[in-house]
Design brief:
single chain, alpha+beta, eight-stranded mixed sheet, globular
């Protein structure tokens, strides 16, 4: 079934927040939906005030989302001036492994190729999040270990991947 990838609209934010939390919990990254980070990223409307959010929908149902950022943007963690960064790529647990995550990443790469001054796509992912690592490796992203970092005030280790466009 074909996917429609498009910018999120106001009516999408509740669904985006729900699937974001469900995806992180389903993957075992957090134990409770009340974790401060999940509470923060559940608020997709706030996120959308500061960064573009895209969704993937199938048959009119949102099944995945991602947040985009450029260097200096509120939601940019690691983007260099010549990079488009994406964050919080999630797929509804009910349809994971359906190709939605891959389709979103491929759309981001295509979009980055159209942006003036952008030469790469970058992202951060959890050090132990192997399913995410596998996707990025399949899409020919390269690990950039010298840019790895820890979430301030935590023991959470994050790794960086980059794709030259």
């Amino acid at each position: 079934m074909p996917l429609n990838i498009r910018p999120a609209t106001d009516g999408d934010y509740e669904t985006i927040g729900r699937i974001t939390v469900q995806a992180y919990l389903h993957a075992g990254y957090f134990e409770t939906a009340e974790h401060p980070y999940l509470v923060q990223i559940r608020d997709a409307a706030h996120r959308a005030e500061h960064a573009p959010i895209w969704v993937a929908e199938r048959d009119g149902r949102i099944i995945a989302s991602v947040t985009l950022a450029r260097a200096g943007d509120r939601y940019a963690d690691i983007a260099h001036e010549d990079e488009l960064e994406f964050r919080m790529l999630v797929v509804d647990p009910e349809v994971q492994r359906s190709g939605a995550g891959r389709a979103l990443v491929e759309a981001i790469i295509d979009h980055a190729r159209e942006l003036d001054g952008v030469n790469a796509v970058s992202l951060t992912t959890g050090k132990t999040w192997e399913s995410a690592h596998a996707l990025y490796r399949k899409l020919n992203f390269t690990r950039v270990p010298e840019r790895d970092w820890n979430v301030p005030g935590t023991s959470i280790e994050l790794v960086v991947y980059r794709y030259a466009v």
